[in-house]
Amino acid sequence: MPKDDWEEKKFKGGTVLKRLGSYRATRADQQREFERLLDLTRTDPTSLESIIKEALVNPKGGNFVVGMALSFISEEAFARLIDSVFLDLAALRGNVVAEIIVANASLQFPQLLHPHLPTIFENWPTQRWAWRESGDTSLEFLRGIAGSPQEPPQTRRNALLCLLETRTEAAFTSAIELAQLLNLSYTVEAFFLDVGYKLPGRQLYNSEPLHLTFEPGYFEQSSPDWSERITHPTWLFPRTGPACRFGGTDSGQCDLCKGPLHHLLTFPGALLRLSGPSPLTLSTCLSCLGWVKAPLFYRHSEDGRPVPLDAGDAEPEFHTGPLKETLVHIDATPARWRWQDWELSDSRQNLHKVGGYPCWVGSAYYPACPDCNKRMRFILQLDSELPTADGDEWKWGFGGLCYAFWCDKCWISSFLWQYL
User: Fold this and answer.
1) Which runs of consecutive H residues, i.e. helices, occur in 268-391?
2) Fewest C-beta in 10 Å: which of 86, 98, 102, 122?
3) What letter does residue 9 receive in the DSSP assignment?
4) CB of 163 within 8 A of CB of 146?
5) What is residue 324's DSSP assignment?
């Protein structure tokens, strides 16, 4: 499309969506249109709302761009889109774009969905995230469904899971009682872990996440896909938090492969209200973690440095070097990005963070401390495609996430990764 035609038609969502969703368009054609759509996020984000509304009417044309566009619209525009969905819900049942809007709203602006929670349960009963931060306002509604013998078992189970997502003390008490009625007592612990709690209600993550913001130029990947990724708002936080060492090597040695430990992050433990050493150094063996053994555990000394607890004689399939060393800032996360999801981020969002609720790739898993046997607390998450010291890109498994955990009583850290 010539530039003049683009300027004339760029606000007509149908034109953009048809080209993006066309099966006859080449990958290069779609990439060019996608880059032009990305340009709108910088030059005229207000036009994105009309593109998303067009996608609601024509969900077959380029609906895969909607998730990206939703990250750049204002809260007011998001509220109008939600109104459009619920004012015409009968016509939009089964509409994939409507589902994408609700799913993203439940992460970015869950409060906008709270007036519609009963309707959401009726139409999207598995959409549990919408109930986050809703308090006890829907407690009786969900209790009534979960406790009703007249409701199908799966409907009652869905109500129980939505109840847990509210994360209130009253909801947890009710969930334990209802699990017994539903003969789910054997799985209720897994349900609690899924929302980040250990029975009967000990929180296993910090409520307020802190994102890692990297130095300009740290990511040197030249592919167009990477340029899309760094334009997302979660990559553009102000870098005003504490500057901390990231990547490089550690002075310690892996007791499995006898290679050097790889340094991940050294940061003030006080940022997460840890009572252990500060600063706290998190290091592991990239050659062994997940490939030879997982999770891996480390005991920390008074100065915060790790000493491996996993010993043996292992020969990794491959020996790798460290991540590229740099300084990162640990910045407070804006409320809009407190909740994130690995799948919905679609490799565009910054998922590198300290604290907050983890973005599980698979099922929630909090290791037990090898000393006290209590579930450890989540403290760090790192995404794939971090640059390595030798100029390559590091992937956790085949593109997943790495998680770090901490026992504040025993000063032990633990690491594992997940991928699909």
Assistant:
1) 342-345
2) 122
3) H
4) yes
5) P
The H-or-E segment that residue 57 falls in is helix 47-57
Which residues are CB-contacts of 23 (< 8 A; sequence separation ≥ 6)?
Answer: none
Q: Is 238 exposed, middle or buried (0-12, 13-18, 19+ CB in 10 A)?
A: exposed
The tokens 């509210």 sit on which residue?
166
Distance (Å, whole) CA 45 – CA 52: 12
Burial 77-92 (b: 16+ CB within 10 A, else e): bbeebbebbbeebeeb
| CA dihedral over 221, 223, 227, 228, signed as positive or negative | negative
User: Which single residue is written with the structure tokens 């005229």?
Assistant: 44
Mean pLDDT, contiguous 10-residue spans, the chain (420 residues): 34 43 55 74 85 84 76 95 93 90 97 97 94 96 96 96 97 96 93 96 96 90 53 92 97 96 97 93 98 97 96 92 98 97 91 98 97 98 96 93 98 96
Closest to 320 measured CA to CA, from 352, 286, 269: 286
Q: Please give the C-alpha separations between residue 271 and each of 29, 282, 304, 354, 380, in angstroms, as whole numbers.
A: 46, 14, 14, 9, 12
| Cβ–Cβ < 8 Å for 69, 10 | no
Per-residue CA distances from 193 to 152, 185, 202, 216 (Å):
25, 14, 10, 37
Beta strands 296-300 and 260-267 are unpaired
Question: Amino acid letter at 165?
Answer: E
Q: Which residues pair with 266 in a beta bridge?
A: 281
User: What is the residue-wise DSSP string for 176-245?
Assistant: HHHHHHTT-TTTHHHHHHHTTEETTTEE-S-SS-EEEEEPTTS----SHHHHHHTTSGGG-----S-EEE
Sorted by where each begins, the domain ranges of the chain are 3-201, 210-418
Q: Which of 313, 319, 406 is nearest to 355 (CA)?
A: 406
Q: What angle do CA 68, 349, 338 make, to 5 degrees?
A: 105
